[in-house]
Automatic annotation (TrEMBL):
Residues 15-270 form the NADP-dependent oxidoreductase domain. SUPFAM superfamilies: NAD(P)-linked oxidoreductase (SSF51430). One of its GO terms (molecular function) is oxidoreductase activity. This is Oxidoreductase.
Length: 271
């Protein structure tokens, strides 16, 4: 495993796992593939992919239940080194419904939440931040974060926080889609905030890139490994690829332990 270190979170694994699609679709529970999805999680945890990103909406909560099942095989010492991020739907604006979401997620996970965040911008950011601080005070989560935000939102949210600083930001980021990467990323890097790269494989579409395939052939790696390594080589960035196939997790784990040569990184930077 490789690690990256952050102000609030300390040192955590440099690669994570996304879990949309595990346990069903958005707001849709499906238990038919539980065995395969548990194997995806078991492989990730066995290979030191120790940042797990989920949400109350993935499989209508069933992804969280599967994660809870996979984590139950770990002792307290190991669990404390794993980072579980979960998200609530941003239509919840009032404190009671945000706390209620956190309680339900922690119950399904069977453990505390490491980072709790809304899926996207909420109608009243300050109110949301204070509710997330309450969730931390209640011991349901260790930290709070934000998703699908710009630098200005991060700064605004930090200004609203009374007790705890932001720990993580989660934005879509891959070598084709670099939304806000310049401003938000450099800000997070400077402030020691974890920058989670959501959709690091562009939902599989970026793997079709001819340039990516050429680099993968030259380095005897797979396109997914190049796409992930490009992100992992950036300070403060932890990508969270998703797969429904246990064997692909082993492919992801092989991104540990090497770096993308500078000339190839520059090629992907410039796309
Ligand atoms: N905060 C947000 O609003 C937000 C938004 C988007 C995503 N996310 C998070 O980011 C995670 C990942 O993003 P994503 O779900 O958009 O997808 P992604 O990780 O960018 O791509 C996943 C897709 O790529 C395919 N794939 C994976 N490995 C592959 C390989 N080695 N070769 C070929 N195809 C491969 C997968 O198919 P198979 O299943 O067949 O392997 C799947 O269809 C999500 O699960 C979620 O946790 C968060």
């Amino acid at each position: 495993m490789e690690t990256k270190c952050f102000k609030a979170l300390g040192c955590i694994s440099a690669l994570g796992l996304g879990t949309s699609g595990l346990g069903g679709g958005l707001w849709q529970r499906d238990e038919a593939h539980d065995e395969r999805h548990l194997a995806v999680l078991a492989n990730a945890l066995a290979k030191g992919i120790w940042v797990i990103d989920t949400s109350e909406v993935y499989g209508d909560g069933h992804a969280e239940e599967l994660i809870g099942k996979a984590l139950s095989n770990f002792g307290r010492g190991e669990r404390d080194r794993i980072i579980v991020i979960t998200k609530f739907w941003p239509d919840k604006a009032d404190e009671d419904s945000i706390i209620s979401s956190a309680k339900s997620s922690a119950r399904r996970l069977g453990t505390y939440i490491d980072v709790f965040m809304p899926h996207g911008p909420t109608s009243d950011l300050c109110k949301t931040v204070r509710a997330m601080e309450k969730v931390v005070d209640m011991g349901l989560a260790r930290f709070w974060g934000l998703s699908n935000v710009k630098r200005v939102d991060i700064e605004g949210a930090r200004g609203c926080a009374k007790k705890y600083d932001i720990a993580a930001v989660e934005n879509i980021f891959n070598f084709i889609n670099k939304i806000d990467a310049h401003e938000g990323l450099s800000y997070a890097q400077r402030e020691g905030i974890l920058y989670i790269a959501a959709s690091p494989l562009g939902r599989g579409l970026v793997l079709e890139s001819i340039k990516l395939r050429r680099i993968a052939n030259a380095l005897k790696r797979t396109p997914a490994q190049i796409a992930l390594r490009w992100l992992m080589d950036k300070e403060g960035v932890v990508p969270i690829p998703r797969t429904s196939r246990p064997e692909r997790v082993l492919e992801f784990a092989e991104t540990y332990g090497w770096r993308l040569p500078e000339e190839y990184a520059r090629e992907l930077d410039s796309l």
